[in-house]
Structures are given as C-alpha cells and as structure tokens.
Amino acid sequence: MRGDETVAHADGSKKPGAAEIRAELERILASGCFQQAGRASHFLRFVVDRTLAGGGQGLKGYTIGVEVFGRPADFDAQSDPLVRVEAGRLRRRLVEYYASEGASDPVRIELPRGSYAVEFRFADAKVAAAPPAVASISSRRPHSRRIAAGFAGVLVAAIGIIAWQRAELSEAAGALAVSGEPQGTEWPRIIVIPFKSLGSDRALDILAAGVTEEIMLRLGEFDLSVIASQASWYRPSDAKGLDSITAGDYVLTGSVRGTATEARITVRLVDAETGGQLWTAAYDERLAIERLPALQEQVAHDVAAIAAPYGPIYKTELVRARRSTQAPTLRECLVSYHYYRRRLAPEAYGDAAGCFRIVSERRPEVAQAWSGLAMVYIDEYAATFGRSGDEALESARVATANALALDGDDFLANMALTRLRFFDGDPALRQSIDRTLALRPNSAQALAQGGFLLAASGDSAHGLLLAQKAQLASKTLPGLYNLTYAVTYLREGRYAEALVVVRKIDAPNWIVAQAMVAAAAAHAGHDKIAHEAAKRVLELYPEFEVEALGNFERWHFDPAFYEVLVTGLRAAGLDLEDAAR
C-alpha cells in the first residue's frame, strides 16, 4: 500500500492511507501497552513498514528473526519458536490496546494468525465502543500518581484481556452448542473471575488486576481452556443460570484486601459441578511497588501448580474419568496417561495406550491424540511393555510425525520428539529440549524430562539446573523427578546419595528404576537391597541379562554413567552378556 490518501475499493469499502496508518502506529507505540515492550514495538514497526512498502506477503520468520531480533544468518525459524512466540505476544498486546487505550482510535492495525503481514482498516462501531469493564475500572477515584504509574501497564493488560475474552464468550458458546461437545481439544474449562478488591485504596485495585492477568497467563500454559469472566461473585446454586461455557468445570476466585501498605490475598478453586472447594491459599504481604512483581509471580506460580499434573484439578479429573460410561475423550486419556506415569505399571500403561488409540481413530485431526500416543509408545520401547522395542519405537515415530504435521507447536509432540532424539543419539537433543521449554517454560514435566535426558547424555550441570526448576514448579513432586539426581550422583561416585534419591522414585514396576537401585546399592555396599532389586529386574524382564547391554548402547547413555551402571548391576549379581555376543 502506498500514498497518503484513504484508498477506495471497487466494492465501495475504504482502507486507511499510509499517513493515517503511520499516525496510528505512533499512537500504539506511545501507549502504556507498548512503552515497556521493546520487542513488540520493534516487531510491529518492522512489519508495518514492510507491509506499507508492498513486501508484507513476503515476510518470513527467518527475515524477522534476523532483522528484528538480531539472530545470526544460520537462524532456523522452523526449529526456533522465537518469532512465532513473539508474534503471539504482539497479537495479544494489540488486542489489549484496542480494548483499552485505543478503543476510540479511528484506525485498526491487526496481525492475522498465519501471516506476518499486518492488515489495516477503519474501526467500526462495534470495535470502537469502549467495553464496560474499562469504564467501570477507570472511573474509580484517583489515588497516588506514583503508584498508578508503576502499575499502569499491568492494569491495562488485565483489563484488555478480560474485556476481549468477554466479547468472545457468546460466539464460543454458540460454537459449542453446534458441536455438541467441548472445544476440539476437549480440555477442562476453568473460569477465572477477576480478583475482587475489598479495600478503598487504588493500589489494591491495581494489584487485583495484575494478579488476575498473571494467573491467566500461567494457566494458559496448561491443557486447560482458560475463560475470563466479568462476574464478581460465584455461587454453586447459580451454576444452572450461567452460560455453559462460562460455568466451566472449575471456577477460580480471589480477593485482595488491606491498606496502602499491607495486603492479604486469598485464592480458591471451586468445582463448578459440586460447589466443593478443591484448594485455597492466603498470602499476607507488605504492599510496596518494588515487591509487587514478585508477589504476583508467587501467587500465579502457586495457582498454576493446581493445574499441573498431580494437582487438585488432575485428581478431580481422574475421579470423573473413572466414573464416566461414555466413549473416552482426550482429557480422560491425558488423565490416564499421568496416572500411568506416576505408577509405571503395565496395566495402567494399557489403559492409557488404549484410550489414545481410540481417540486417535475417532479424532485423527487432533494433534494431541497422536502426541499422547507417541509418548506411550516411547514408554513401551523404554520399559518393554508389550511389543518388541524396535516395533514400538517405529510406532512412536509415526505418531510423533502425525502430531507435528497437524500442529508443530503441540507440547506433547515436542516432548516425544525430544525423547526420540535421545534414543537416536541425535545431536539436536539440546535444541529440542530448549524448544519444548519455549512452548511451556514453567512445565515441571518438560523440565524434569529435559534434566534427566541431559544428565544421562553426560551434561549433568545443565541437567541439574532443569531438575531444580522442575522441583520449584511442582507442588506435588512425582518420584520420577528424582531421576536426574540419581544419574548425576552415580556418575560422580556419590553412591550413598544416589541410593537415597533413586529409592524416592518408588517405581517397583519400572525396570530402569529397579536397575538403578540395584547398581547404587551394590556400589554403596548394601548387598541385600542390591540383590532384591536385581531379583525384581528379572521378574519384570526375564531377558534382561541377555538384552540389557544392547539396550543401554542403543539408548546412548553417557559412557561414565554406562560404566557405573553396568559394574553396579554385575556387583548386584546380574550376569550381563556382552552386547555383541
């Protein structure tokens, strides 16, 4: 698009001219939404300039990565999600801006999904109308300008997200009514009611809005459908009167009270079906500008843990799945998978694998069905459940490829790809771990897996860093998360410590865990424990003595870890045959 005049199309519609677009760009970049967002500002200016110059349709992730974000010439936009992640953030900031500060702007600049070429149009009445949430919050009495300025970005962001999602509720509900089932991914739905400020100080209003936004961003990293609501109350008896999508499966509420110097934050999770309280927490903190970001982060971290595997939502979903008499859904498969991963028992494996097979046949267009199947097939290979290892691994490759073809950003698909690269000895393992963590930076599951695979490959330093982050990210730490420490301590000859942590894994049905118990105990001089673990290994895998060394070599264990493991198993009484023989 060129020229400074409004452009008229043959159908009578009009598009803003270059001068109008540039004026709108400057308004956006000067707003509170973008003042502290350097990356988003550079990104937006670059794509607007290119689009106005006529090169918008030719914009690629590589070009943006190199010219906007300073990536080197060998930048791979397919494997590095930087540009896609930043594009998502830019879209969200634009939505926030037009839902608040830019509500009355005459021009709209939009970044459509699937393209880096921005679009320009004049605002219509529907978009230009300021949502009620903005008016109600902004009309409250003014307080300290210093405090307000410190939180302006947080407040605007929270208002924008809430107002935007409110406008989308009716359309989403209509789509659900037509489909007759929850969203295509079938995730549990959690409605987040904006935290209510119960004090008279404006700082509390801003804190409540900031905590709400931070929680919504964190919950968005999990397999949940996160829905914002304008409701300031919730009573189970009113559930039938709420829209089906608004009611959700779970309701998160909270409040902030106190003074300008002290604040008490309370949070609670409610089961929308029963009205039962599943989880609650309270925080008493000193209210100071410099402490608020950390306080908001802490509350959001704790709330996010309720949605992580093995938290209260997982436990409730497990109960619901067990009493269901309908055809299995994807959400039930994921619950079955996490239940199996905690127990690592063959019967639990069969339930999870069977569930994913059914759903992948019924919903072959859903990436998560294939990625879940890939994860259980990799476990089949690693734990020798059912089929021969090579057959299971090939099935995992096919399922992973199917999932990535449907959605290259699917979390479990990238988890599966990471594990496949480990078993293949692929040097791209570290890159795959980083990409998975870029998709969900706070996932204890991804952090723990990455830590173990790095340690088993010989990089214990980085592996332990990820394992420590996994511990901080999880409120209910599964035993598997101790694997990284067990591998590291064995490699370093700290056998007594290795035995302590490997027994915390508490996986009597998993061959690898029992083998590590046997090796650690033998090296530490605990012969009885070593022999009992070795006996359990043979009960689980009668061919272990014949096939173990071949498996270890195919799994590309670090040589130092391999040597300690093998000598320990032999000291525990296992007669391991040479792999070549």
Give the helix/strand layout.
Layout: E1 7-8, E2 14-15, H1 18-29, H2 32-35, H3 38-52, H4 61-67, H5 82-98, E3 107-110, E4 119-122, H6 125-128, H7 132-138, H8 145-179, E5 189-192, E6 196-197, H9 202-219, E7 225-228, H10 244-247, E8 250-258, E9 262-271, E10 277-286, H11 292-307, H12 312-323, H13 330-343, H14 346-362, H15 367-383, H16 389-406, H17 411-424, H18 429-439, H19 444-456, H20 460-473, H21 483-491, H22 495-504, H23 511-524, H24 527-540, H25 544-554, H26 559-571
Parallel strand pairs: 5-7, 5-8, 6-8
Antiparallel strand pairs: 1-2, 3-4, 8-9, 9-10
Short description:
The chain has helices at 18-29, 32-35, 38-52, 61-67, 82-98, 125-128, 132-138, 145-179, 202-219, 244-247, 292-307, 312-323, 330-343, 346-362, 367-383, 389-406, 411-424, 429-439, 444-456, 460-473, 483-491, 495-504, 511-524, 527-540, 544-554, 559-571, and strands at residues 7-8, 14-15, 107-110, 119-122, 189-192, 196-197, 225-228, 250-258, 262-271, 277-286.
